[in-house]
């Protein structure tokens, strides 16, 4: 379609123009990624309220589907099984105009990240390792995917480049009030 044809379709009158415009509007999600403790769920709820959008937390969807807490899935079935469930749940999400808070380990699944990107913009909530440690407390009960022998710092250093690779926008949430991060996302998107 040429530029003139596109502008011509915008100048149509009446119902036909409304149908074209309505059909052209693509529904988009805002997907929040980052480490456990970055504030994805908390910020996601506030962002959804600010933008009048629905909110989905993929960790809660996984827990509802499996009937167990994330940590129980990891402890009983292992990391690989948990990650397979996470990939399946995230890849199958059918939501529009929604804020989606993901689990921190979703970044390991190329399939899940591709599905999320197809449906919206990916926002990485960056928080320093020290701040993550302060926020998390006991990492053994948080449902964090950590291979044997790895520390939280190992996981952090492994994931940060992946978050940056997949994200459309990075918001530095360190030493900021959650409302300020919400405002930054609203302004950027």
Automatic annotation (TrEMBL):
<keyword id="KW-0808">Transferase</keyword>
<comment type="function">
    <text>Catalyzes the specific phosphorylation of the 3-hydroxyl group of shikimic acid using ATP as a cosubstrate.</text>
</comment>
<feature type="binding site">
    <location>
        <position position="159"/>
    </location>
    <ligand>
        <name>substrate</name>
    </ligand>
</feature>
<keyword id="KW-0028">Amino-acid biosynthesis</keyword>
<feature type="binding site">
    <location>
        <position position="41"/>
    </location>
    <ligand>
        <name>Mg(2+)</name>
    </ligand>
</feature>
<keyword id="KW-0418">Kinase</keyword>
<feature type="binding site">
    <location>
        <position position="59"/>
    </location>
    <ligand>
        <name>substrate</name>
    </ligand>
</feature>
<feature type="binding site">
    <location>
        <position position="142"/>
    </location>
    <ligand>
        <name>ATP</name>
    </ligand>
</feature>
<keyword id="KW-0479">Metal-binding</keyword>
<feature type="binding site">
    <location>
        <begin position="37"/>
        <end position="42"/>
    </location>
    <ligand>
        <name>ATP</name>
    </ligand>
</feature>
<feature type="binding site">
    <location>
        <position position="104"/>
    </location>
    <ligand>
        <name>substrate</name>
    </ligand>
</feature>
<comment type="pathway">
    <text>Metabolic intermediate biosynthesis; chorismate biosynthesis; chorismate from D-erythrose 4-phosphate and phosphoenolpyruvate: step 5/7.</text>
</comment>
<dbReference type="GO" id="GO:0000287">
    <property type="term" value="F:magnesium ion binding"/>
</dbReference>
<keyword id="KW-0460">Magnesium</keyword>
<dbReference type="GO" id="GO:0009073">
    <property type="term" value="P:aromatic amino acid family biosynthetic process"/>
</dbReference>
<dbReference type="InterPro" id="IPR031322">
    <property type="entry name" value="Shikimate/glucono_kinase"/>
</dbReference>
<keyword id="KW-0963">Cytoplasm</keyword>
<dbReference type="GO" id="GO:0005524">
    <property type="term" value="F:ATP binding"/>
</dbReference>
<dbReference type="GO" id="GO:0005829">
    <property type="term" value="C:cytosol"/>
</dbReference>
<dbReference type="Pfam" id="PF01202">
    <property type="entry name" value="SKI"/>
</dbReference>
<dbReference type="InterPro" id="IPR000623">
    <property type="entry name" value="Shikimate_kinase/TSH1"/>
</dbReference>
<keyword id="KW-0067">ATP-binding</keyword>
<dbReference type="GO" id="GO:0008652">
    <property type="term" value="P:amino acid biosynthetic process"/>
</dbReference>
<dbReference type="GO" id="GO:0009423">
    <property type="term" value="P:chorismate biosynthetic process"/>
</dbReference>
<comment type="subunit">
    <text>Monomer.</text>
</comment>
<dbReference type="InterPro" id="IPR027417">
    <property type="entry name" value="P-loop_NTPase"/>
</dbReference>
<keyword id="KW-0057">Aromatic amino acid biosynthesis</keyword>
<comment type="similarity">
    <text>Belongs to the shikimate kinase family.</text>
</comment>
<protein>
    <recommendedName>
        <fullName>Shikimate kinase</fullName>
        <ecNumber>2.7.1.71</ecNumber>
    </recommendedName>
</protein>
<keyword id="KW-0547">Nucleotide-binding</keyword>
<dbReference type="GO" id="GO:0004765">
    <property type="term" value="F:shikimate kinase activity"/>
</dbReference>
